[in-house]
Amino acid sequence: MDHNEQQETAHKPIKRNEMTRRQFLSYTLGGATAFMGMGAVLPMLRFAVDPLLQKKQSGDFIKVIEESKVTSDPQQVDFQVHQVDGWYESDPKMEAYIAKGSDGQVFALSPICKHLGCTISWSGAEAPDLYHCPCHGAQYSKDGKNLKVAPKPLDEYQVKIENGWVYLGPLQANTRV
Amino acid sequence: MFKGMYNWIDERLDVTPMWRDIADHEVPEHVNPAHHFSAFVYCFGGLTFFITVIQILSGMFLTMYYVPDIINAYYSVDYLQHQVAFGGIVRGMHHWGASLVIVMMFLHTLRVFFTGSYKAPREMNWVVGMLIFFVMLGLGFTGYLLPWDDKAYYATKVGMEIAGSVPWIGGYIKELLAGGTIVGAQTLTRFFAIHVFFLPGVLLTLLAAHFFMIRKQGISGPL
Q1: Where are the transmembrane segments (chain A) (predicted)?
Q2: What is the pLDDT of residue A32?
Q3: Which of A51, A166, B20, B213 is the most exposed place for a label (fewest CB within 10 A)?
Q4: Cβ contact (<8 Å) for A51 and B178?
Q5: A56 contacts B186? CB cut-off 8 A
Q6: Which of A56, A83, A86 has its CB closest to that of B186?
């Protein structure tokens, strides 16, 4: 037993804390670094996802056509909506196909193909009395039921009828098929 | 004169070993087209990199005229294409190079596949190569929107629908990519940022890893 060891046994064994000085320093330094790193990264992430968290424009109803002019044959109507796209505000033209169903209800379909978003049209040479998409040949019935290619029926505008006029609102999933 | 300048710098910084280490290495006989002409298939990786460099350079110059703004983007592209001297050439390099880089990358992948070069110990390099492939596709997708013409707009709309078809999170991916619910002003700036800063940053990092690994592990042996 050398001198040092003898000396140690003379003392009570020191009860050491769980954490060494090295551990303490690396935790504090690591924590501070992580904190500062997050301080730099979090604002950027929040900045990037901001469009996801912005309040969505509530859709207004727009007057498009007199109710008496709606027939059982779908007809295309154009109307303008006010659109806020960040710093850019515009009044883009929207399209809808309006028709009276066999149940007498007026309904309006969006001409955006549910396959990949091309613009469809009613009753062309390729598909009489059907909606036809020029891109990949999707077809829909008058009620918007997907007959070919497309996975879902055409979206439907919310419809409101007031004083003999048809008003179109936001798009919703098809309720007719 | 250049030799003198080089020696002056080399005396102080000892740069010779650095570039020797990068540039001075043997090319094995089986990958040298001068020995076996069929070895030209080993050039596709280098050609991909060559075209990538052209893409980076021509892209840098295109941003001297281009603005990522929905009102002016088309006109700025039209202007640089038709009014600026050699505009058609510089934009042509970027336009055709974008397709060519995919072709070259595909041929390089085929060569690696059919020579079995992806096998141990080079599996990680194959994986990094695949990541580079996806980054390149992302660069193509984001770059396609930037001229803001009909083709660009509708191609992106279709791309958004594809992104939106991912189960569960598709809607969020779509909105995050588009920077809103429509393909519009915020989509264009977002795609520009991704195309010009984010993906090239990722690409250069992955390329560095790709090249580091091929130098460390060497070219795979002959068939």
Answers
A1: 24-45
A2: 97
A3: B20
A4: yes
A5: no
A6: A86
CB neighbour burial string for A75-91, b if at least 16 within 10 angstroms, e if fewer: eebebebeeebbeeeee
Mean pLDDT (chain B, rounded):
95
CA atoms within 13 A on the CB side of A114: 22
Residue B92 has φ and ψ, to the nearest 5°, of -60, -40
- β-pairing verdict for A139-140 and A131-132: antiparallel
B positions 193-222 inside 8 Å of A (CB): none
Q: Which residue of B162, B172, B180 is in closest CB contact with A85? A: B180
Residue A111 near residue A133 (C-beta atoms within 8 A): no
Report how many Cβ contacts below 8 Å link chain A to chain B. 41
- pLDDT tens for each residue of B2-28: 999 999 999 999 999 999 888 888 888
Q: Per CATH, the architecture of A62-172 is what?
A: 3-layer Sandwich (2.102)
The secondary structure of chain A as a DSSP string is: --HHHHHHHHSPPP---SS-HHHHHHHHHHHHHHHHHHHHHHHHHHHHHHHHHSPPPPPPPEEEEEGGG--SS-EEEEEE--EEETTEEE--EEEEEEEE-TTS-EEEE--B-TTTS-B-EES-SSSTTSEE-TTT--EE-TT--EEES-SSPPPEEEEEEETTEEEEEEEE--S--
**Tokens standing for residue A76:** 């295309």
Contact B176 A51 (CB under 8 A): yes
- Among the partner-chain residues B178, B181, B185, the one whose CB lies closest to the CB of A56 is B181
Q: Express each pLDDT in A116-164 by its tens digit.
A: 888 899 988 888 899 999 989 999 999 999 998 999 999 999 999 999 9
Can you give the residue ranges of every domain in chain B?
A: 27-217
ipTM of the prediction: 0.76
What pTM was estimated for this model as a whole?
0.81
Q: In the CATH hierarchy, which fold is given to the domain comprising B27-217?
A: Cytochrome Bc1 Complex; Chain C (1.20.810)
Side chain identity, residue A91: D
What is the reported pLDDT for A3?
64
On whether the CB atoms of residues B65 and B76 are closer than 8 A, the answer is yes
